[in-house]
Amino acid sequence: MANNFITNNKQTKTLKGRLNTLISISDELKFLVGYFYFSGWSDIYLSLQRNPQQKLKLLIGLQVCNYLGNIIEYAEQQEENSSMDEEFQKYLVSLGFALNNEEMDTEEFYNQVRFFVQMIEENRLEIRKTENPNHAKLYLFHLNEDQAEIQGMSGQFITGSSNLTRSGLHNQEEFNVEIKDYGYADAVQYFDELWERATPITDNLENRKILIDFIKNKTQVATITPFEAYCLVIKTYLDLQNQEKEDVDLDALLDKIELKKFSYQSDAVNQAIQMIKEHNGCIIADVVGLGKSVIASMIARQMNKRGIIICPPGLIGDAEKKDSGWWEYLEKFGLYNWQVYSRGKIDQIADNIEGRDFEIIIVDEAHYFRNQDTSDYEALSMICRGKKVILLSATPFNNSPADIFSLLKLFIVPGKSTISLEDNLAGKFSRLNYEYKQLSFIFKHWNSTDDRKRKIAENYYTIMIDENLPIDIKKVKAQTKRLSNDIKRIISPVVIRRNRLDLKQDYVYAKEVGDLSIVKDPKEVFYYLDPEQDEFYDNIISKYFAENGVFTGAIYQPFSYEKILSDKLDESGNRQYNQQKNLYDFMRRILVKRFESSFGSFEKSIERFLKVHKLVKDFIYKTDKFILDRSFIDRIKDFEIEDIEANLEKYAAGDLKRKTPKNNEVYDINTFQRRQEFLDDIDSDIQLFQDIQQRLKDLKLVDKDPKQEEIINKIKKLLIKEPDRKIILFSEYVDTIYHLEKRFRKEFGNDVLICDGKVSKELAKNLNSDFNAQYKGTKTNHFKILLTSDKLSEGFNLNRAGVIINYDIPWNPTRVIQRVGRINRIGSKVYDELFILNFFPSLKGADIVKSREIAQQKMFLIHNALGEDAKIFDEDEEPSAAALGSKINSNPQEEGEVNTITKIRNLYADLQKKHPEILDKISQLPPRVKTAKKHSEYELNVLRRKGLSLFAQSVGKDEGRTISEIDFEDLLEKIACAIDEPTLKLSSVFWGLYEEVKEFRPKYKMGRSEISLEQKAEANLKKSLRILKDLNFENLNFIQMLIRDLRHYHTLSTKSIRRIGAQELSDDKKSIRYFLEEIAYLKRHLGESYLYDIESRTRGRSKEVIIAIENNDLRELF
């Protein structure tokens, strides 16, 4: 190869080497390049530094732009009448793209760009832009006197393919020619002619000043103060929250339908539409009474697409009159091409929905669909696939990580997450759920009398908390709090959540919502038991149905009798034991809660339990077999509360006799190691139920119910005092409502309206006309009292009532908030004050102080018996009888805290008032700016962005250098400072840590159970490819698609995965037929090419740093 060829080949010279050599012996440089990329500057700037008298004329031939995250050159012809100033401004824009390129986010560039500015300031560097686009590359070197004399020439040049970039100088193969012996003068003349016609960039003093100011203040090397950084973080958060603006004139629409406009609702609409565009869905989680249904309807109208609503049966409304429920919302908001479906028919919807051209799905009370391993969830998942999803739930945070993940999975692709820095959201939630289960187990059993459970809890503690025994429950609480914060942070990009505190404290919303009804602190109402009744009450709670009490629950846990339990159960045995033990605990707690609710409800439960136990006993004695339905165990927590006992009775009466190996565990009693004990315990439980039935009769607790007598007397007094104030009595159980109905009818006649959970058209009409202040039809006053189960605590406006009576104890505070939310509605205030009554048992003859003490003790016994069913105390609270009484009687409207967005909105409003000039300055800053300030300890805080989601990370310089993702509020606390906070230099460790944060990729593994199930499913699918290939099976492509999904995307519900992997595929025809049926089912409901859309939709999203703020330890600065 000729000696003057430069190809950047390893065996030959590079352009970088030749440029540095020639720069060192030249006194003037003239470069014509397509564009001056700063990646090439680092390769020559040391040579330029060593020649302080040297000058460089840089002629730029092209513009650059940012295209899909990449900097590319493009030719732009100078407009005929464009001025020099216009061309200069175009160059600044182009320069901004080049200097703010993510590739330039390096220590090298950060330091070297200052030398670039210095050369401009010293007139050593002149820049011009060619009049017309020019893609030539020409490097001219005018040799210094000594070299000119030595070489016998004035200069030489290089031309060819290489731009002044790192790639062009040495990283990629190019073809350039170095020419010494001819053409130099002509090349100089060509350059000078272009130079004379070019647009001056640095020649003009004003332009030079603008250019230098642009580099120093509007690029990623900009110097900003710590306070400006703090403001930028706040502004960035809000800017990403407010990307969308309303297109439809919702103000006019709301006026037309006579609904008051609230900014908090219109803001939610804009945020939700942005979330839907970015993440394919959102969760509207405002607390009860803030108008989630109105917000969802506004979103639907704004998006102007066809959709469906899936909701509880009682919220559907009248499809013909369209004057109630969701049908009324559709009518009011002009959503005439929408449909409303009952969630009770979800499987039918999934079967019949295919091919219908709807694009949006609204799911009301979405928390119902929290279990991926149910047919209902599987059906909903298939309906939501490929659609825009809006989930409505006031209680998304009150569930386990697995429950929350189930909701997210309805619109997020778990293997390619848009709401987390790492793609694998499935692995992240699997880890969170694993920790949650262990922490929950520790809380429940750390001081258990069951040695086995206590030892497991202690083992979990030593592993999770990494501390020696004994268990410090405060440390467990702290870990649980961190877990809860992790979950809230993860889901925040897709959740809109405001409560009444937010509305009261927000600088805009507070002016609009005006005076809200004041919810008075709950009042205690005591009913009194005689000594015999009191003794029976305490025996039920602390003796008969307490943990390890008289009730054995043998029929719910046959595994414990089949073999002698040891600490070394295998995985399957441990799962079976825990499942059945949990079922026993669940049934035991039901009896305790129904007893507390009403003696009538409890009597019905005892009657059903007795019937089931007798049927089971009869079956065992006839067959020597016992059958436990595994699917019943899996589904029991998803049954409506009133359906649990009915389903158990139905199973015992009929399903017990049908052997269906697919779901049933068949036990041969004769193989039980504790056979006689099993039979004796069943007899013992039957005797217990019979004894309880007799005592209920002897004590006349049902016929002359003291609790019922007291509530009737209390209501009479309320109606005498305020005859126009309607009253709602809530109970968790329909049986309690039935128990009260007869006596209420006798005492109050037709003033009583009963809701047993089934909302007929007639009942819906009465609820609206008599209890809904926003009802646009004819209002009536037929009823003064509403007795209802919690079916009406969700989705109904009942704000013409002013009193809520919690007939049974509200063990879940969220339920109380939901109940009160029915009567405390934003924008439709009826009463200045709203009242809550709570009922508690006490002993006859006790005064008010003693009554409260007795009630608290009884409630504490129930609390302990209920265990995890009682969600009264927070993680950091120590349970006690007095504390329990205080918590139950606390004001539900005072629960909760101001949300992050409210705090930031208020902070930003304050900045707008006090420092508008700073907000104007930082609005022109690009990403990746940096600053440093003093602090009590060292930490580097980095705010990163992925799509429209923000992530805060923090790292110290300790030996482990642990990089943590932190809450946004924690970030603000770390970077908050005064306006005059001095700016420090970046420390010597900054860049190393900064690069570690940028490169950090957390890795999460799926939990053992998830892996096991997915592995079984994938194994069957892979095996089917071998078996079915010989059969020329038409679904081979679909099976391969399922395998890709399991490996990379994780979109299938647990129920769908179980279809594939529940039974090991074998070569026999029956196994193949069953497998093919399940594959056909999935193909029919998912679509034969369902994954293609997901694959195209989830291609990589870029991540970028917004700002880095270094807190330098004061002790190390001096």
From TrEMBL:
Keywords: ATP-binding, Helicase, Hydrolase, Nucleotide-binding
CDD domains from the UniProt entry: PLDc_N_Snf2_like (cd09178), SF2_C_SNF (cd18793)
Keyword flag Protein transport: no
GO MF: ATP binding; helicase activity; hydrolase activity
Domain Helicase ATP-binding: start-end pairs: 273-414
Coiled-coil segments: none
Species the sequence originates in: Sphingobacterium multivorum
Xref: SMART domains: DEXDc, HELICc
Xref: InterPro entries: Helicase_ATP-bd (IPR014001), Helicase_C-like (IPR001650), P-loop_NTPase (IPR027417), SNF2/RAD54-like_C (IPR049730), SNF2_N (IPR000330)
Domain Helicase C-terminal, residue spans: 714-896
Domain of life from the UniProt record: Bacteria
Keyword Ribonucleoprotein part of the UniProt annotation: no
PANTHER family associated with the record: DNA ANNEALING HELICASE AND ENDONUCLEASE ZRANB3 FAMILY MEMBER, SWI_SNF-RELATED MATRIX-ASSOCIATED ACTIN-DEPENDENT REGULATOR OF CHROMATIN SUBFAMILY A-LIKE PROTEIN 1
Protein name: ATP-dependent helicase HepA
